[in-house]
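QUALITY CONTROL LOG
STEP: pairwise intake check
CHECKER ROLE: data steward
CRITERIA: each record must contain a sequence immediately followed by its C-alpha cells, with no blank fields

ENTRY 1 OF 2
RESULT FIELD BELOW
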Amino acid sequence: MRIVTIFTGGTIGSKINWEGIISTNQEAPYQLLEQYRKVHGENILFDTREPYCILSENLMAEHVERLIQEIQLVIEEKQCDGIIVTHGTDTLQYTAALLGYVFEEAKLPILLVSSNFVLNDKRANGPDNFAGAVKFIQEQCGTGVFVSYANPGEEVTFHRGSKMQYSLQMSDWEYSVQNQWYGRLVNGNFEKNKEYQEVKFGGIFSAHNVTLKPDTREILRIRPYPGMAHPKISDGTKAVLYESFHSGTIPITEGLRAFCQEAEEKQIPIFLSGLNVNETEYETVGAYRAMGIVPLAGDSVIAQYCLLWLAVSNGIDVREVIKR
C-alpha cells in the first residue's frame, strides 16, 4: 500500500526550540513516520511532499491554492491509495472545508491530521490521529476529505471536512456540527455513525482551475453580542454571513433593521448560520426572516464562510451556491 503524506507544518510539524518556543522544524514531520513504523511496522510505503511549512495561524489563500495543486497532482498520478495532509489545529477547519468542496468528487480518501502537542510530548495525539488516518485508508472507509482526530481520552473520530466547527476556546477538542461525525475507531475497528447524513454540492469547484482571492473583503462576516453596532456595508460587498447565538437567534434591534434595509437597497443577500430547522423557532427568528435574512442549514459556519469565499473568488453567484 502506498500513501502520499503532504507536510504543511503546524504543531505536528514543530518542535520546542532552545528558547522554549514552539516553531516549525524540518525533522518533526519525519518523526511522525518513524513513530508510526515503530508501532505498526514497515508495511506502508509513504511518499512524502512538503509544498510549504507554516504555523497554521498564518494560513493564507496562496497556501491553500498550493495545497490544492499538490493534491491534484497526486490524484492525477493514480499511484497511491490515499493522501494524508498534516496540518496545524488553529485553521484546520478552514482548510478541511475548502478541500472538502474542491475534492468532493475525489475517488480516494484524503485525510487531514493534526496534533494537540508537539510529537515528543507524551500528551500528543498526533501519532494516534495519523495511525487512524492510515487505517481509514487501508480499509477504504470513504472517499473525499476527512479529518482524523482523537479528543483527549477518546478514540480517533473521523469528521467530514465541511462539518468541522470551531474549537472550544483554549481547548484542543474537535467536533462536528450537530454531532455529525462520520465514523470512529472502536477498539481499533472502524464504525460508521448511523446518524450521519451526507450533504453533497455536486462538485461545483474544480481543482484544475479553482482560485482563492487573497482576502474576503466581498464577504461581511458578523457575530452577535449584546450592545452590538452594525457596520456600514462597503462597496464591493457581495454577501453577508451573520452568525447566530446557539438557538439560531440574533438581537432584533433598530440597528439590525437599518442594516437589513441598507443590504436590500444594495441587493446584497444576508445569510444566517446556526438555525436548527428541526427545532421550534423563537419569535425573533420570524422577525429576522421578515427582514430578508436567509437561514442556512447543514454545515458549520466555517464551511459556509469557505463556500462563500470559493464562490466570490471564482465568479459564482453566491445565491446559486447557497441553494445547493
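ENTRY 2 OF 2
RESULT FIELD BELOW
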Amino acid sequence: MINQNLNPNQINTSKIIIDNSFSDWVFENTFITFKSFNEFFLLVYATEQKSIIIYNLMHFQLIAELKNAHKEFITHFSHCYDTNLKMDLIMSISRSDNNVKIWNLTNYNCVLNLENVNTNGILNSACFLSYNNDNYIVTSNRNWENPEWMKVYNLKGDKITQIKNSKRNTFFVDVYYDNNNKIIFIITGNEGNVVSYNYNENEVYKVYCEDFENDVFHQSFKIFEERNRNKTIIKLIESSDGNSGIIRIWDFHEALLLGKFESSNNIFRCICVWDNNYIFAGCGDKTIKLINLENNKIVNSLIGHRKGISSFKIIFHPNFGKCIISQGSNNEQIRIWTFKD
C-alpha cells in the first residue's frame, strides 16, 4: 500500500513522460490530468503542430491525437464530466483568436466551436461551471485598454449571461464550489488583484489586494480548506510576478491577508497546495520550490527541467500515489515527480 503521508521533502525521483509538448510561458492548465468515467487516468496536452494529445498516464502510452485541433496555438485546457451526455468533455482554447472548442472523449469529436468569444483582446483562460446538473463555459478577457465582460455560455453555444462588474484585465479564471453555503464562486486572477464573484447573485464578492500594481500578473491561485479542530477556514493562495515573485494567502470569505512569501530571485508561475504546511511553486529558474508555510522558507528545489515551469499538478497516480506532474515552458518536457522507491 502506498503511503500518502510522506513528507513532500522526500520527493526526489523524476521521469520524463513527454519530451516535447507545447506550453504557453504564462499561465496554468497548459495541460490537464483526470480520471475519466471509464477509469482511464488521462493526461491531455497540446503540440506545436496545434494537435491535442490524449495520453494514458497509468500505462504511459498515447491513446489519441486530435490533429490540427485549432488554427492557432492551444494554450489552455479544462475538463468536466457531463451527466446529461454521459461522457467526459475537454475544453481547449487558442487565446490569440479567442476560440473555444469542446471535445467529447467517446469518439473525440468536436461538439462545440465558439469563435471570437471576445471582440477585442485575447482569451487567456476559460473554465467549466456546473450548475443545476448542467455544464457551462466561463470565459475571460485580457485587454489593457478596453476589457470586456466575462461571459457564460451553455454547451449549445448560447451566451446566457455576463458577469457584472467584471470588466478587468483578466488572465486566469476558475470556479470554486462552496458546498456548505451552496454558493458558486468565479475567481479571476487579474492585473494587480484577484477578485471573486458570487455567481448565484451575479455580483462581486471580494477583492484580494494589498496595493494595486500595474503590470503585475496574477498567474495562479488555489482554494483550499484548512481544518483546525472544529473550525474550517477557506483559504485562497495566489501567486504574482513583477519585480519579484510573491505568494499571498488570504482568508477567502473575509479577504484578510493571512501570510505572504516573497522572493526577489524567483518568478512564481504556478502553485499547488500539498497540505496545510507545504506548497510547491513552479518557478522561472527551471525549478519547483517546496515552501514551508510555518516558517516561510524554501526547503527543497526539484531540478530537472531545461526551462521555466509553466504548469504543474499534484495528483494521485494509481501506481505512484501522491506525486507531481510538471511541464516546462516553450515546447518543453512533461515530467512526473515521485517518492523514491
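INTAKE CHECK: passed for both entries
DESCRIPTIVE NOTE, ENTRY 2: The mean pLDDT is 89.
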